Predict the 3D structure of the following.
Amino acid sequence: MLAEYVALSAEGVIATPAHLTFEEAATLPCAALTAWHALVTRGKVSAGQTVMLLRTGGVSIFALQFAKIHGARVIITSSCDAKLARAKELGADEIINYMTIPDWEKEVFRLTDKAGADHIIEVGGTNTFPKSLLAVAMGGTFSVIGGVSGFTSEVSLREILGKSVLIRGIFVVSRDVFVAMNRAISQHQLKPVIDCVFPFSDTPKAYRYAESGAHFGKVVVTV
Ligand SMILES: NC(=O)c1ccc[n+]([C@@H]2O[C@H](COP(=O)([O-])OP(=O)(O)OC[C@H]3O[C@@H](n4cnc5c(N)ncnc54)[C@H](OP(=O)(O)O)[C@@H]3O)[C@@H](O)[C@H]2O)c1
């Protein structure tokens, strides 16, 4: 909100998990809740399933953490080996550098014995959407969340109908789901991954840094 004082309806706020700082809790309302809704409330991810994540921004890193507490296998892509190493430390099972392996959808098939991924958390948009459709498994769930590289795409109807893919748009969600997500975050003592925290006076720098795509997880502005 970039404000020191804000008047809000009591129904519009909830308690933060006790083990989190304000900076950590500030990462939850958008990226975390979206990832949780796609993967857990709607996606009903379960142990043993494969989750495909694109890039290492806020949504994808929360999705990685949520997939792991549900016992799923995670495949994640990034442009950067150092970021992939950090994803591995967080529990990613398979990592793919999409700069060195541009046909990463084929790699997903190889890694899954030609089955494909049960869940795709699609945040890439224009550049990744067609490849993500190729990487999804028969009967898989495809959550359309963002468009880091743009919001238009050519879509293969053959892939959608041939594999009976469930494509679902996700746009954050309600307070009830937020409360449920926070219960899980508390139970697992899960810590949001913050790349860096900028002081309020450096807000423009924080935006420029987030825009550069150099971050891993979340960028925070503290008041
Ligand atoms: N539907 C919803 O309710 C909802 C909620 C939250 C976010 N979103 C959308 O979901 C998408 C992802 O959100 P996010 O918060 O995870 O994004 P983010 O933190 O900005 O992450 C984007 C990632 O994309 C990669 N990237 C490569 N080149 C980039 C560039 N030039 N600029 C920015 N990123 C670049 C980077 O990862 P690598 O270096 O690893 O490739 C970066 O970490 C966005 O389109 C956002 O608007 C939607």
Summary: The mean pLDDT is 96.
